[in-house]
Amino acid sequence: MLAARFHRYGDPDVLVVEEAREPHAGVNAVRIKVRAMSVNPIDYLLRAGTVRDVLPLELPAIPGRDAAGVIDEVGEGVSDANVGDVVFGLGGLADTAAEFAVLTAWSAVPATWSVEEAAAAGLASVTAAGAIDALGDLSGSTLLIEGASGAVGSAAAAFALAAGARVIGTARPTNLQYLTDLGVLATTYGPGLAERVDVLVPDGIDVALHAAPSASLPDLVEIVGDATRVVTVIDKAGAERLGVRAVDAVNDSGLLARAADLGQRGLYTPRVDRVLPLASIREAHALAESGAGKMVIALA
To answer: Among 26, 98, 175, 238, which is most exposed with the fewest C-beta within 10 angstroms?
Structure first.
């Protein structure tokens, strides 16, 4: 099969598209013929070797955590999936930028999503759902999301709004209208956030989610007034220092199914900023790493 791989750690130029051995579905897993996959921050951190001490890879490695496609192998122990099903989901730490990928968590793609949108939903939606669950019952609460226009932030906004929360979200000026269209009260991030939020919601913020690669976690704690009501999916070191809860993504089919249900109801559309072919995997990584938005790689 064709796959993107890197034989050494480094910048996007280490990525090559070449022949690789096909994976096969193991116990409690399915294999898909990949139609699209997305680029997530963990992908370029792994490729660059930034996290090699805690998340070492066997090289050469195929980047990618999530994908969407058509099931063509069903592993032992799987009773809720069939060959021919169109699904999206999560593979291993790095293995989905290829013609075939094995998923250990998956859900049916809702009719309201394109395959590219489905490919962008896997890691973002389980991360967002886990973070929203960690914040508890949000009905009637006001949630501040730092980085609400990103893939994880916008998914979290959808989950929170569906749970009955009022959502305030930060973004760069070019993304404020995007947040407004989602039903989020939008403001810019950066210095003076507390003052801007106070103007938007004089009655205060109940809970906050840190979903952007920023140094704003202490500000969120100050705005909320209680570190136990703040969650981060970005800053583990800051969370430990401040007493904030840090949430990691997990391969959970139930969380994916919840995202798909929101999608089917028209309440969540995964963010896709650009779609590129597998041959442009270097460009996709470079763009994602530069902050250009959510990149999706189309394979079929």
So the answer is: 26
In three-state secondary structure terms, 38 is strand
**pTM value surpassing 0.90:** yes
Measured between alpha carbons, how far is residue 164 from residues 38, 96, 183 in Å?
A: 29, 35, 12
Residues in the chain with pLDDT values less than 70? none
CA separation for the pair 288, 290 (Å, rounded): 5
8 A C-beta contact, residue 63 and residue 94? yes
**Going by DSSP bridges, is the β-strand pair 207-210/142-146 parallel, antiparallel, or unpaired?**
parallel
Q: Which two tokens stand for residue 105?
A: 């968590």
Euclidean distance between CA atoms 216 and 51, whole angstroms: 22
Instruction: Return the structure tokens found at 263.
Output: 């999608």
Count CB neighbours of 162 within 10 A. Answer: 16
CA–CA gap between residue 234 and residue 244 (Å, rounded): 11
- Sign of the Cα torsion 143, 230, 288, 151 reads negative
For residue 172, the model assigns a pLDDT of 93
Cβ–Cβ under 8 Å, residues 110 and 92:
no
What is the greatest pairwise CA distance in the chain?
Answer: 58
Rounded CA-CA distance 132/268 in Å is 14
- Name residue 212's amino acid: A
Single-letter amino acid, residue 177: Q
pLDDT tens digits, one per residue of 26-69? 999 999 999 999 999 999 999 999 999 999 999 999 999 999 99
